[in-house]
Amino acid sequence: MIERLAIVGVGLLGGSIALAARAGGLAREIVGVGRDRQRLEAPLRAGVVDRISIDVGAGVEGADCVVLAATVSANEHLLEAIWRGVPASALVTDVGSTKRGIVAVAERLAAGRSLGFVGSHPMAGSEKSGWQVARADLFRGATVIVTPTDATEPRAVKGITALWEALGARVSALDPETHDRTVAAISHLPHVAAWALVDAVGRFEPGALAFAARGFRDTTRIAAADPPMWRDVLLANADAVRASLVAFRAALDELERLIAAGDAAGIEALLARLKSAREGLA
Amino acid sequence: MIERLAIVGVGLLGGSIALAARAGGLAREIVGVGRDRQRLEAPLRAGVVDRISIDVGAGVEGADCVVLAATVSANEHLLEAIWRGVPASALVTDVGSTKRGIVAVAERLAAGRSLGFVGSHPMAGSEKSGWQVARADLFRGATVIVTPTDATEPRAVKGITALWEALGARVSALDPETHDRTVAAISHLPHVAAWALVDAVGRFEPGALAFAARGFRDTTRIAAADPPMWRDVLLANADAVRASLVAFRAALDELERLIAAGDAAGIEALLARLKSAREGLA
Questions:
Q1: What is the distance between the alpha carbons of residues A10 and A18, in angstroms, rounded to a whole number?
Q2: pTM, two decimal places
Q3: Among A15, A176, B70, B162, which is disulfide-ready with A103 (CB 3.0 to 4.6 Å)?
Q4: A217 contacts in B (CB within 8 Å)?
Q5: Domain spanning B178-279: which CATH class is it, in words?
């Protein structure tokens, strides 16, 4: 049982944590923290948070658990104020899509004052954003990756893992570097491909959009993701995203080479291998 | 009312046409034609086709309407036998994903004997294939592109359009060249991107597949499409697919250049433009 849960950024993820924590009776008090008082009033009126604050220091004061759910760069900037504002016994995590940056900030701060921080990444986003799309069941059955390092306090891994499990998620652990390569491969690169597909139609045959059917819609759904959030993600994970693009271009080149050569058997064998890899996803 | 509808290839598309025609009472007799008698027996037992034939000439004899629903290359090879086998008054179409090839074959044959052919492309596929996934409502609300040229008999456009509308589809007309560029942009290129995404994960960070969430699944769903069918499509439309890849690579390059430059405002502006283009899809 959490006495005081402070959620910094009450959008899709932060709002869903608040909804699920409230529904599950996981926290005695929930504080919503954000930059914009007006936006915080909807979850307050809904009774999902008990108090709101536009001052991070005041908002997290006395909290025994803090979840940072703003953008990746805002989380990194806010972490120092949180580090100063919470009791030494507090557990702190973030829900950003990249982990090397915030973990490095946390390790720098931990050199001055020990605190129970571990990074988290719930694999349960949406191309939609904001409190109005938050759902109490967003994390049910979802995977959350926590990213401890040798410097992480074991009680932080234990406590934050327990929080996610109480919200209905399955928790896996990866080191921050492997995490960032993993999400580059299965999330950031697919976003880049989806944006480039939408862009390519405009460059190549703009009238074609009028005929887009289910295949195009599914493949490019994530191209409607939130631009400011993804600007941050792409910059925070730029090296891993660019390394994944090297592999992506090599894959495009291989298939195009087979097409250019008219290699029917080679194309069929490659597509059969990739179909099988795709169908291997549970 | 069609007296005798012959469907060559009773898989997802051909089978769905048979189911919808039977349900709507559009044809007095439906003949299923294919290479494999055993595979034809399921739709025969289900009463969806009245007769089956593994001989194309015999199967289409006396038909007043023929739908070619085998692979793109098989359709092109079969068209000559159909041309010889049907009455001069018959209407003939195909449902292949590329149109320049079969339209060229039809125009060559029409120089010898006039016949009511127009190409069709129902935008209502699936990554699954075969009779067992056919559905009577597959074409309801779907778009079908017909591809007449100056040489096409008007009665063919009129009759085949009426058939699709009776099956519940909306019909648009494009010339074969524009059609093939359109489907390269909104279907073939997204398939290529989906295959390359699956391939890239294997090349870059194979363990990442274990963490694939909804974004990756949606973006790569079509990577499980039927390899022999897509081998044909990629080869039949090779030039348009490769031209679309030029646009796709240019789009990837532009976004990567902004990431490499750390151009936060440029990334956000580009993503906002593409989000808006994606959301413009009805």
A1: 8
A2: 0.85
A3: A176
A4: 281
A5: mainly alpha
